[in-house]
Amino acid sequence: MGKTIKEIIYENRDLYKQWLIDFCAVPSVAAQNRGMEDSKKFLQNLFDTYINEKVEFIETSGYPVAYSHIEADSPYTISFYNHYDVQPEDPIELWNTPPFEATEIDGKIYARGIADNKGNLIARLAAVHAMKQQNPNLPINVKFIFEGEEEIGSINLAEFAENHADKIQSDGNVWEFGYRDVDDRLQVSLGVKGMLYVELSAEGANTDLHSANATIIESPAWKLLFALTSLKDQNDKILIPGFYDDVIEPTSEEIESLSRYLFDEEANKEQLGISKFVNDLTGLDLKRKHLFEPTCNICGINSGYTGEGSKTVLPNHAFAKIDFRLVPGQDPNRILKLLREHLDNQGFQDIKIKDMSGVQAARTHPTEAIVEAVIETVTASEEMAPNIVPNTPGTGPMYDLCQRYGIPSVSFGVGHYASRNHAPNENIRVQDFYKHIEQVADLIVRFEQKLKSKGVE
Questions:
Q1: What is the pLDDT of residue 74?
Q2: Distinct helix (H) and strand (E) counts, the chain
Q3: What are the φ and ψ backbone dihedral angles of 447, each rounded to 5 degrees?
Q4: Which of 265, 327, 329, 418 gives 248 a disulfide partner, CB atoms 3.0 to 4.6 angstroms apart?
């Protein structure tokens, strides 16, 4: 009798962990054009040496998309979307270990990009590697789609999908991310919010001035602050006329699923060191706002002198970066237009808007075969039933790659509630990494069986 998948994964556990450690050593920061070519070389070697399958690096207007189609004697296809770029490591002084030297401490591995998104990417490749050790012929076609620009807004993924619609087609997609709740329950997410990311800037004199000139010279910092306060009130309502007009309200079925979504308020507040949520919301109202409502958030704001001590200066420039998280029905291009009209009507015609990125919201119906297969996989391998999240409050280019082409998509993965994505000391737990390898291998088998049972042709 041959070895089981779990036995094969166990025998290769050190190899798979080394793949992850080596990949995290590549500082693939797309925003700074660091390590991107080395990432290509790493993936090329991984496919050539271990997966023994062809990988293409398909050119876009930016960084290439790594694409591999592992063919099987099956009419069905599962696809996996991940990204090989990571966030910058700043502020580096807050890291306890070197961000690009994966360090294992007490069952966790710390490295930039290990949770977002290299842990998931490597685990999914490892699952296919293990399955091919058991049987070179997979039960279903598998496609890997790894982009290099997710952390800078996936600015060329829609172009890639449009130019290669035949390559991206599948019966279901497993999206990049996935996390565990505070109680260790694994989340299964069925969608993402959309986003419009902009930079607002205000200009003053042609140079910084002594602050004594504030009597007669307009301050761009104050101008920007006044513009920002016109966008949202103290109850978190966005004040841009027409902003909510196209929002598709959640269905009764989605509200019912929201009531089943588990969110431990007290544990989350304790973890974050806060005493309350926005507007003192609790219960279903809190969950509805978190998952089904849009936002207007200031990501960063800068002007003038912010160093040690004092410097009496009237700055000549001020800027703020803002993200609007959007829900189904909201078009980022229309929101951008409404933002410009609002600022003009409020007297801020000279506030400049730099459009940095925009993506549509996406959501998958819970009765899709890929969703049911993931839920069955997680249920069979976990002590607790999964926490079904109608859609996460975060954003990704899911619509551009999946829903636009009729491809349902679902997310689950290696992260946990304190993985610290985008922050210093990003980490995953080693046991979650190995568990995800096992689950992906099981999912590939279950998905093929689910499609057959549903009579999908």
A1: 97
A2: 14, 19
A3: -65, -40
A4: 329
Tell me what the mean pLDDT of segment 171-190 comes to: 95
> How far are the Cα atoms of 12, 176, 257 from residue 252, in angstroms, in the given order?
46, 28, 9
Contact between 413 and 188 under an 8 Å Cβ cutoff? The reply is no
451 contacts: CB under 8 Å, gap ≥ 6? 76, 171, 369
Cα–Cα distance for residue pair 83/46, rounded to 1 Å? 15
What is the CB neighbour count within 10 angstroms for residue 310? 7
Q: For residues 430 and 443, what is the distance between their CA atoms, to the nearest angstrom?
A: 20
Q: Is 353 exposed, middle or buried (0-12, 13-18, 19+ CB in 10 A)?
A: middle
pLDDT, position 209: 97
* Maximum pairwise Cα distance, the chain: 87
CB 329 within 8 A of CB 229: no
Given a contact cutoff of 8 angstroms between Cβ atoms, the answer to whether 119 and 127 are in contact is: no
| Residue 230, C-beta contacts closer than 8 angstroms, at least 6 positions apart | 239, 342, 343, 346, 348
CA distance 42 to 45: 5
- Distance, in Å, from the CA atom of 36 to the CA atom of 45, rounded to the nearest integer, reads 15
SS3 122: helix
| Nearest to 148, CA basis, from 299, 20, 42 | 42
Cα 329 versus chain centre, distance: 20
Q: Angle formed by the axes of helices 36-46 and 13-24, to 10°? A: 160
What is the band of 1 on the pLDDT scale with cuts at 50, 70, 90?
Answer: low
Position 86: which residue type?
V
Both tokens assigned to 162:
């449009």
Residue 325 CA from chain centroid, whole number: 13
What is the number of other CB atoms lying within 10 angstroms of the CB of residue 271? 12
- For residue 253, what pLDDT is reported? 82
Average pLDDT value for residue range 141-150: 97
Cα gap 67→107, rounded to integer Å: 32
Mean pLDDT score of the chain, rounded to an integer?
96
**Those residues with Cβ within 8 angstroms of residue 91's Cβ, 6 or more apart along the chain or in another chain:** 424
Q: Which residues pair with 323 in a beta bridge?
A: 197, 297
pLDDT at 394: 87
**CA 39 to CA 193: how far, in whole Å?**
28
For residues 143 and 127, what is the distance between their CA atoms, to the nearest angstrom?
A: 13
Check residue 28 and give its pLDDT: 98
What pLDDT digit, counting tens, does each position of 387-420 carry?
Answer: 999 888 988 899 999 999 999 999 999 999 999 9
